[in-house]
Fold:
Amino acid sequence: MPYNETLALKIENILLEKEIVFTSKKMFGGYAFMINDKMCVGVLNDQIMLRVMEEHYEKLLEENGVEPMNFTGNTMKEFLFINPEAFQTEALLHKWIIFGLEFAEKGVVKSKKKK
Structure:
């Protein structure tokens, strides 16, 4: 199972309850939710993939169950993995989604320079 479908459905339901306009697609080997054309929250295996504002990144890494998102040995700036112990309750799941929604609203995605 590349991503926990139950967790993805919980996230989707929270976004629908908040009346957030989003799209979703397979990304990073998991399932991602796109808001304002920005990947802000998703699921990979049993972890939440979360994109946060740069000013929150270091502080959030100090929390239990949070680690930098790392693919192929490279840490992705502003991206975090949230392990299941950090979102065991509905309130904690909402907490993480709010960080992703903040990025979707205010964050800037830097495009790669064209050659």
Remarks:
- DSSP finds three helices and six strands in the chain.
- The first helix runs from residue 5 to 17.
- The helical segments are 5-17, 54-61, 90-106.
- The mean pLDDT is 92.
